[in-house]
Structure formats: structure tokens, C-alpha cells
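Morning!

As promised:
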Amino acid sequence: MQSEANIIKANRPRRGGIKGLLLSPEVSILIPLIVLSVITGIINPKFLSWGNFSVILRYSTFIGVVAIGQAVVIMSGEIDLSVGANACFSGIIFGVCAITYDLGFIPSALIAMLAGGLIGFINGYLVASFGLVNFITTLATMFLCHGLAITISGGEPIAPLPDAYFDFALLRPLNLSWLFFIMLGILIITEIVMRFTTIGRKVKATGGNKEAALMGGINIKRVKWGAYIFSGVLAGICGILYAVELSAASPESGIGLEFRTITACAVGGISLMGGEGSILGVGIGFVLLMVLANCLQLLKVESNWQLVIIGAILIGAVLFDLAKKRVQAKSEQ
Amino acid sequence: MNEYILEAINITKKFPGVVANDKVNLSAKRGEVLGLIGENGAGKSTLLGVLNGIYHHSTYDGELKIEGKTIKPTSTHDAMNLGIGFVPQEINVLQSLSVAENINMANLKGDGKVGIVNFNKLYAKTKKLLDDNHIDLDPKADVRKLSIGQQQMLMIARALVTDPKILILDEPTTSLSNKDVENLFAVIRELKKKGTSIIFVTHKLAEILELTDRLCILRDGKNVGLYERKNYDEDKIIEGMIGRKITTMYPKRDVKLGKEAFRVENLNVDHPYVMNKHLVKDISFSVKKGEVLGLAGLVGAGRSEVVTTLFGVIKKRSGKIYIDGKEVKIKNSSDAIKKGMALVTEDRKKYGLIFIWSILKNISISNLKSISKLKFFVSTKMEEHRVKKQFDYLKIKAQSMKTKVDSLSGGNQQKVVLGRSLNASPKVVMLDEPTKGIDVGSKAEIYHLINQLAGEGVAVVMISSELPELMAMCDRFVVLAEGRIAGEFSGKEGTETNIMNAAVKTFKKI
Amino acid sequence: MQKNKNTKRTNGDNFFSRIFHSPEFGVLIPLLVIMLITTLINPRQFLTITNFSTMLKIIPFLAIVALAETFPLMTGNVDISVGRVMGFAGMVFPYCMMVLGLNGWISFIIALLSGGLIGLFNGFLIVKLKLPDFIATIGTLYMAGGARFLLTKGYPLSPLPFGFGKFGDLTPLGLSWPFLIAVILFVVVGFTIKKTVFGRQLLATGDNRAVAALSGINVPRMRMTAYTICGFLVAIAGILFTIDLDNGVPQNGDGWEFKAIASCAVGGVSLRGGKGSALGVAIGVLIINVLDNSLIMVGVPAALQKSLTGIVLAGAVMLDIIKQRRKIRA
């Protein structure tokens, strides 16, 4: 059959060609973003300048890094509520290493990433091996991290970081920042891994139907554990990036990120039931949230409305995903 | 006509593709224990569903009568109100509440004040019910602390609350110890004295002989025999159960046996939630290259548990596995597949497939190494090339390999599951009910495939509840009962009679 | 007929043995142990009336929120939005009086309804629309969280009119009145759980939905009712807290959901559903708060309390899971 030959010829895991591109989840999330941007631009033309947009992208760095880790955890069928507090905690560790113990950038960064990964390791053990419910576990580690962060820092930011770090953060290639490009790099690498490698297949299989994955020979304990550790390490990186940006390790940074990352994932096409989604979609998702925040600011809407709206968006996005699945199931019968 | 409390007359119930009950007749006399026996697929469950109201009266033909009056049950509640009590097979109770509350949950209000439970009255009422029926339970007891036998008694007491005229017990002794079975029989005998009719469904011949007054045998959805106690003849009963009409032509094959491919020694698996109880005990067997071994037995005998444990999914207490003569350590399914084992399960929905994925991805998941460059990057070219082999070999009927599996028919879905297993080039393939719920055409194809596999030197272990199918496809048989080996037969010895005799064996002394 | 000795022994009619074997007693022991250890380490600061009365000041409100959380937990679900909803209702009350100029009692009822309706909304999302419970309640958590600030653009509302503020100073029977109200609520809920048809059916729903449905219980309605009751109780806590502070503070409730769940878990309410005891929750609340206090007495930095509460929560749930996995006797 002609169509079959075409499909098999196309060297992509999903439907090839223009049609495939238009129907992909990334495009379907891109459209609301474009629409929202256009509306905002009409309300306030200042929005549509690269100067403004680049700032939005720059600020999306921090939620971005963490959202990538959250996305992998969700795709494996779990959830991680500790990401924000973990970023805060790891950032403090970084600050302590860099300032109090003067260990230099690379050792401090490695230790901070290790700290974040350790939290991920604990999450992984409790959820994958012991069988504790994922949100209770990560809720508990969230409080563990937050408490540790405040205790170690004494409630005050640890500052100042060596000027070299700050100078690096101040560089503005294309009016963006190198920190943004680090996040972008992580995003692209993660997307490549999830889409094109055996690791990605294993994660998606585990999230898609963990019993079937088990029968297919996948070690689901290892997959979930790995996802949590990955999320933890990325939270660690986020903490480091925050510290570099602010030139201080603050016990306030990162708090509240977990919720936004979950929303970014839901909006970005990651099914909260696990098993599918693309990191690029998540990328567009958190940029969308930042644009929304900016839009509301320009409209002089109170910042607290953001919380309400994002809460509604989260519920709406998940409902939409559930409805889509139900429609699909019915049409196949 | 008052001699009969319950009469089921010419019950015919059809499901797509199969007539589960074909003009089945059943009648239970006042104060008797009527046994109902039949092998897997004989139509017992369907008949029970008709009697206890799961099936609306409009979904089947035939008549039901209680004490001579026609009834038309619309639901399980309706059947209960009409006087039919039912105790299902699975033990299902409210763990955190007391015995009295479990028994009376449908009617906690009783005659107490509005909305408030009068516990004293409840306990008294329950105690009376328990004493009247000689069931030894404390109404105040915490159900979580009861033994499994006591929980079974609790379920019976729950069914007795509505003072049923007839009580149906579905395989009640599956999880019980000898003493518990004794207790159960004593309670049943007391119920008999009160005039209650009891329908006792079992596959254990010894229980039939010990307890029942009459026996009704089902086979292929039809009545094949009704025996009075004085005429009980073990051989005749077994004969009644077997001898199903063979409507399928099973393909023949030349049996070429090689060296020993797979050996299991002393496999023991503990029961997951009952202490000191086994799911599988002392199972040993071996399979040669090119051989098809049939794992026979009735439902609950432990066959699925054996293969699932061998595949590394259930934890075993002890046992050794040898592949090609060398011992292998299987800790999880990943090990099993790497060492050359494959398992095709019966429940495609739960264990089989990732429904949001395509045929391509479902099959390739078992052997990602083989389709990746540098063991890391999945090459779609290699993937499609490799899966195409399975796709063609299995003759999966779908538009393309990229079709999502949830749009496939049952038979084709089963092929995808099989494809996934074969994709890892296994040396041992274990099939658990490979043709369950599949259309006739696909069944024939699967039989051919099994023969082909054996012909290529793969060792096959097959579980099937359809005895004719098992007998036609397998070279040797290991029969399980109550988690233990009840018989081993080779080739010609593997007659239906021998297999069934072993399958209905009880290891407990009554 | 063989007499089974075991059942008789575990549930002796003896009053004392009933107490010893009750789950609440099991929860009481850790409380006493903590208090004992703290007394040994720092008796002077711990065993003072001021210390205890300071502890008791905030406990009633937290206790009511924990009591509210018990309802969804008993039916096998969770509600993470309880803290913010409490704060929200606590703002709706003064808002109605001071901004909308409504009567005190009407404001009370409106605030109560605001909590109840959010609870109903949660129930609807989770039971009817089948959203995962923690996702739905995270959503309402943030919606209510933001809404708390929106009413007054973030400013607190005080002092309360109609003399509500003075209410906070009353000390009926020598105890603070929030404490009394909490006790009354606990007694009522405890009675409901242990002695009413509704309470027993609620537990059955959480224990085993299939069996509950077979027994004629309307399982979806039960689950939604549980969420709605939770919303109402949480609203009561918020309103009372505002009255007590004589100040409607938008930030009220932050972090309370966590303490509520921890109190319930420690107090013997299984996260799987089917178990719940008002007395157990009360002791759980005491444990969580006394633990906080003890840690300060022992010299642990205040910030670390949060971490330790997290560990206690995880530990309590782990213990519960281990208990659930215990095998039944043959």
C-alpha cells in the first residue's frame, strides 16, 4: 500500500511530513502561546519587542530546568513535589561550599548537584522500592529540604558569591543569558534522550503501563529511581543557577516552583497519567506560563490572580487530557 | 412442586461467539446440598450469574422459579430479596469494621434511632444469627484479626442475614485449611436441617463425595448428568466432565526433541497475604528443546503463579532454574528475558500491552539493545526492520506497524504480545492461555505458530483451560492441583481421564 | 464445634483490655514518650504553664483542620487544599462584614458556605470527573491561595466589627473558647464516626468500595460528601482563627495542610482509607505540636522542625503500610 510505504520510509518515530508536524503536541501548545502573545501585544505593543521577550525567556531559565526533571518523573508515571524545595536546598549547599568553604566553582557545583541527587535518591527509594505513595513521599522530602535550607542558611541569604560568577551571569548574548542557554542545552539533550534513545523508551513504557513494561523486561524500579534522581540533580542545577544569578544563595529561591512545573507539564502535553509527552512541549509550556505572568502584569492585574488562573489552568489541562483519552477510547471501540 | 425450592428451566445464555449455557436445567430440593461440577469453561460461572441476579432476566432465555413461583431477577439486590443468597469465590470483606457490621452493613439502621447504630442490639442480633447457624464468630471481633477461614464464615453469615431460601457457595474451600473445611461442612449440615437448599460449586471430587446429596455436571454449557448420592461413581463423574466436542482441527507436527532446555527444581511460592500458606509447593519439571509441555489443572491450581514466578515477577521462597543445563538467577523480568525466557500472559489489558503505543513500539520494547546504535540511540530503521520480521511471521493484521494497538482485535493484540516475546529470541516460551477470548481464525494461526516455534527448537510451556486444546498441542503433561504436582503424563498416558483425575485431586484429608 | 479461642481473647469484654488494645492507645504512647524525654532534658522550660498554654493557643484551629482532613482520608482520598481554604474562609468572613457591610451571622454563613462549596467542587472534580485527587486539590489549593489575597489586595482586615473581636478574649470555664469549640467538634465527629450509620458507611466506603457498593452504599455520594464536610469544617476553623486574632490575615493557612495530614497519619488515620478516629487525630495533633515544642526545648533550631515533621509524616505512613502488609492467619 502506498501510504504504508511512505510511512515506513519516513525516518521518524511519529507520523512524518507536514501533516505530522501540524498535528504534533508541540504545535498544539505553540498555538495558544502565539495567540496569547498576540493578544498581549495588542494590549501593550511593548510586549512584542525582543527586549521584553528575551527577558521573559531569561527568567524562564529556573522554572525550565526544574520542569524538565519533573517532566521525566511524570512520564515515568510518578510526580515530584519536592523539586522547588530541593532547588532551594541545593542552592544553599552551593553557597555554603562556594563562600563559607571557598571550594571553587566546580567542586561546589558538583556537591550541590550531589545533594539534589541525594534527595532524588531518597524519593526514588521510598516510591519505587518501598511503595510509598508518590505525593506523600515528595511532600515529606519537600519539607525536609525546606527545613534544611533554612537551618543551614540561618534564614539569611549566603552572600556574596565571587564576582566571577556574577559577571558570567550578567553576560547578555542575544540579550539572553548563558544561564538560559545552559537550560536550553539541558532541554535539548533531555528531549533527544527521551525521544531517540533506549532510556527514553524505557521511561515512557514504565509510565504507559508499568505492568506491560515489566512483562517486556524493563526494570521499573530502576527506571523510577533514575527519574527521581535525574529530577533531583536538575533541581540541584537550578539551585546553582539561582545562586549565580542572584549572586547569593537564598533560602527563598525555588519555593513554589513544584506547582508551576506540574502545570507547565500538564499544559505542555505531558499526560499526568504518564507515558507520553515531549520535553519541547514542556518548554513551550513554561514559556507560556511566563508570558501569561507578563501579560497579567501589563494588564495591571494583581499578581494573586496569577495563582488563581494557574490553578484553573492546571485543572483545565488535566481535564482536557482525560477527556481526550475518553474520546479516543470510545472511537476505537 | 414444593419439594423444589429453586428451579432453573432451560436456561440459555449467549455471549458473542459462544453459547455459555445451552438449555441448562437445575433444581435444588428443600434441605439438600446440590453439587455443581464442571471443568473450566463448562458454563458454571454463567449459570451462577443467572441465579444470583448478575444477569438481568431479559438477557437470557428460560425460566427461574422459587418454590414454584416464577421470578424475574433484575439485579443482585433483587435476587437477594427473592431469597437467593450468594457467597462469591473471592474473600471480600470490610477489614476495618467488626464482624457484626460486616454482616449487617446493608441494614445498619435496623430499628435503632434515626441514623444511630444501636450496637448492643446489633451485637445481639448478630450473635443470634451466628448461634442459630452454628457459626463460631464473635460479633465484636475486628475482622482484620480473623483467620482466612473465619473470614469465609463471615461471608456466609453475611449471605444468611436475609434468611435466604437457597444459598449458593462458589468454590468456598479454595483458601481453607482442613479444619476450616470441617467447620464449613458442619455449618452447611446445620443449614440443611433448617430446610435451606444449598448449591455447592466445586471442582474437588472428594468434597462432592463427602458433602453433596445430588450432583449436577455441566460440560460445554449443557447438562450431562445428574446423579443421586447413592449412585455416585468417581469414574462416571470424571467421564461426565471430560469428552468435550472437538470443533477445532489442530495442526499436526513432527516432534523433534533435543537436549534439555529448561528445568525447574523445587519451586516454592508463599501466599501473598495468608500466613503459612503456599501458592506453589515443590514444583519440579523439565522441558526439552522442541518440546511442548502442557501445564494442566483447574482454575486456582497455581499454574499461572508458577510461570509468573519463573519469569521473575512474583517472588519465590525457594527453587532453582536451569537453562540449557546451567543454573540461572532470575530476580526480575529483565533477568528472565536476558537469560532467554519469555512469558505471554492471559490478561492483555493489564499485563500485555501499552495501549497508547503502536505495534512497532510494543514489540521492540523487549529487545532495545538489538535496535540501538551504541546500545543507546534507537534506530528507527533497525527497529522497523526487526519488528517487520515478527509482524510478517505472526501475520498481524493491521494497516501498518505504526497502528496503535488499542484499535486491534483481540487475536491480533495477542499476536503483538507474542511478537514482543519472540523479539528477544527466547529459548523458553511460556504461554498462559494463549487463545483465550480470541476468534477461531486467529486461534488456528496461533496453533500454527506454536508448532513452528517448537519446530525451531524452542522449549514451550503451555497453560490452557481447554483440555482438548492442551491435549492436541502438547507432548507431555504436568498436572497441578492446589499448587502441587498431582500427576505427570507423557504422550499416550495423557488422556483426558488421567489428566482430569489428577486435576480434581485433593491433598487435604477430609 | 470447635471454639476459637483467639477471637475471644483479642476483644475481651474487659474495660481495661479494651483500652489497652484500642488503636488510640497506641498513638498515645509516642506522645507520652516524647513528653517524658523532653521533661528529662529540659524540665524547667518545658513543664511550665506558660509553655503549655502557648502550645494550646494554636492547637484548636490546627486540630479542626486535621479533623476536617480526616473525612476525605477515611474514604481513601486526600485534600491538600485545606490550609488555603481555611485562610480563604477566614478572609471571606471579615470581608462580608467590613467591605460588604453584611450582618455578622450572614457573613458567618457565607464564609461557611465558601468552604463547603470549595469542598464540593473538589469532590466533583475527583469523583465525577475522575481527576487524580492530589492534582485536583493542588489546583484548588492555588486557586484558594490566590483568592485569599484578592479580596483585600493583600491587606489584613481588622479589627472585627460587632464585637467579634472581644469574643476572642472570653475564657469560659477557664479555658479558651476555641479550645472548647474544638473539643465539642471532636466529640461530635468522634460520635459520628463511631456510632452513626453514616460514619460506619463512610469507613466502609474507604475500606472496600466494592463491598460497600454491594451493601447498598452510594459510594460516589459518600466520597463527595466527605469532601464537602471537610470544606465546611475547614471554614469553621478559618472563621474562628480570624475571630481569635481579631484580624483577617490573608496568609493564614500556609503550610497547615501538611500539618493536618501529618497529624492524621500519626493519629492512625490510614491513607488507604477505612480507618479514622477523632480521638486518634486529637492525639496526633498533640504529638505534632508537642514535638515542635519539644524540639525547641531540646535546642533544635526552629527551621529544622519542618524537616523533622516531614520525616515523622513519612515514618507514620511507612508504618501504616507495613501494618497493612501483614499477612492474615491461615
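The domain at 258-340+427-510 of chain B is CATH 3.40.50.300 (Rossmann fold).

Hope this helps with the figure draft.
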